[in-house]
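As a next step, the fold was encoded as tokens, giving this record:
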Amino acid sequence: IKTSLLIRTKSTEPQVETKTREEREENVRNCFSVNQQSYALYPKSSVILVDDGYTSGETMKEAVRILKRAGVKRILAFVLAKT
């Protein structure tokens, strides 16, 4: 298990504190990057992405976008709770 593949690059307010989908999308836009040291060990591999809470799906969508841009070929996404 690698817990350091994604790095939060900007501080964001919790998604449940935003009111609209547009605010949530803007809140998480470009808030992640790929940790190149971790990713270099497993290029073009599959990733299981786990999020602790699902509000609108924008955080998960942004994480998937960044991982795909880095070259991850397959992403399985799981959420522990829906808010």
In short: The mean pLDDT is 87. The radius of gyration is 13 Å.
